[in-house]
Request: fold
Amino acid sequence: MGAPYQLFIGLGNPGTRYEATRHNAGAWLLDRVARRYASGFRAMARCFGAVADAKVGGTRVRLFRPGTFMNDSGRAAAAAAGFYKIPVERILIAHDEIDLPAGTVRLKRGGGHGGHNGLRDVVPCLGGAGFSRIRIGVGHPGSRERVVGHVLDRPPPAERAAIDQAIERVVEDVERIVGGDLEGAMNTLHRRPCGEA
Reply:
């Protein structure tokens, strides 16, 4: 079991144009956690985003939504980590994942950016890839040329429902995740068939 996480970041794009698009799946999860465990977000101009103080189970954690666009996520993540003096290994990042079917969730410690433009920017800005990830499946469009349009588009209702079910499963296990028991949460979340509520 690892140490508890101190900073939980949900990646996405700002503004109403993007809030319902697949690229904002990480932000959708963070919002659900905030609704259950925090009183609301407050703007943090020095961190280029908004933060909510939460107690998730027995763990005090800051929930952070970058106000920057996805490709510029690293600047906000690094500013928040630096301001709160949180080391990279105590950071948890939720993001959309095209290499997983909609309705699937995978947890992971460390690793590369996997082609995700948000993570591609975050890794050098945080000085390494030692943070943990909650990967929320949004499905693949079938060809590389269609990826950008896919993640910047709204999922159809059935697909959105599957993603929401996956997010709800994470929220139900989030106390264990934030508390540092990523392996225990993996045993539960990774066994669930795609789309099972």
